[in-house]
Amino acid sequence: MGMLARALSDHLKEIAWALFLIFLLLACLIVIFGRELGFDSVLWVCLGFAAIVLGFFGMLILGELLWIVIRKLWRRLFPKNERIL
User: Fold this and answer.
1) Residue 43 needs a FRET pair 20 to 30 A away by CA distance; which of 16, 52, 74, 84 works?
2) pTM for this structure?
3) Phi-psi label, residue 38: left if phi above 0, alpha if psi -120 to 50, beta otherwise
4) 39 CB contacts (<8 Å, ≥6 apart)?
5) Tens digits of per-residue pLDDT, 36-78?
């Protein structure tokens, strides 16, 4: 397992923890504001916010995976003893 793959696995653990905390906060908001504003409307607002947050973190993960692929491809195309720069 390469250095970037280990870094990715550590980063995924951090992202999973952050998502858990954000979703827990949203669930608490549903319970707190559900009685006052109506559970259905608060649920839809929190689900929409959760989808936005999930999309943002998904873009972060895909960006990091793309960076790993580009880095490996660059190393394969230009080995260390044949590098120009």
Assistant:
1) 16
2) 0.72
3) left
4) 30
5) 999 999 999 999 999 999 999 999 889 988 988 898 888 888 8
The one-letter amino acid at 73: L
Residue 23's closest CA among 54, 57, 62, 69?
Answer: 54
Asked if 3 and 10 count as a contact pair (C-beta separation under 8 A), the reply is: no
Neighbours of 42 (CB within 10 A): 19
- What torsion do the CA atoms of 62, 43, 30, 14 make, to the nearest 10 degrees? -10
11 confidence band (pLDDT: 50, 70, 90): confident
